[in-house]
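[audit] Reproducing an earlier prediction to check determinism. Same input, same settings, fresh worker. If the tokens differ from the archived copy the diff job will pick it up downstream; this log only records the rerun itself.
[audit] input (298 residues):
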Amino acid sequence: MSGAQQELAHLPLPASVVALGAEATVQRTSSTLPGMDGDIVWHVWGERAPGTLPLVLFHGGSGSWTHWLRNIDALVATGRQVWAVDLPGFGDSVEPPKGSDADAIIEPLYESMRELFGPQPCDLVGFSFGGMTAGMLLAAHPELARQLVLVGAPAMGVVPQRQFELKAWRHLPPEAQLAAHRFNLAALMLRDTALIEGEALALHVGNVVRDRMQRRRLAHTDILARSLPQVHCPVHAIYGESDSLYKEWISALEQAYAKAAPDFRGFALIPEAGHWVQYERPAAFHDALLAALRDGAQ
């Protein structure tokens, strides 16, 4: 690694992250898979009320639990116990023993969730790369979840070509890295560019410098659409209306889900929101997610 690559830009951790992180209980699971030396890290908020299941959140690519920063308090306030994982190879979690894409983390996640929850299912919500991963996980291990909510998930096979390009940044000096991060947030994550500076930029930088799973081959396939026929629990989908993964092709998504998922329950589009919908429009997202969770629990 060159000196320029080693000198990664960083920003102070936002006070919002520090405060919410301090409120969490940290749970760690150690894998028995050969070559996986380290822990998968979970952040837990709230107490589990009688009759409720764990609400499990999978973050997006180059992310961590902080992708859900603006959502956790509101979910806990509804009486749910929230479990937000750092997916293997992201955040504080160890990388898988081999592979650098979503297929490499399916079995480590299965093992971790079995250790934490035993035979009890959860309600599973996956954002972007984490949504694709959740679909693949439940195709292999459908007993893990009572219901699945997919947020801004790729790999539904409706986009004929990539809808955005990101700037490489690891080879740049720190100030130029920050400029590339701002560009990438606008190109992929947020419709409202006024949100980029400050908290969102600091979250993004803090996450991408810890990303050790940098391949996104599967996100540009139809792997989620091919996985969903094996997922027999209720499935809902929530997207920002201006999601950069799909753009004008977003109108084809609802039909693709209805065709792929045996128990597809509903498709919600959040106005004035891009790909990182739960950060950009947290209140509207919260309403849509709660409606989906209520429906899927019936």
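[audit] rerun output stored. Observation attached for the diff report: The CA atoms of residues 71 and 286 lie 7 Å apart.
[audit] end
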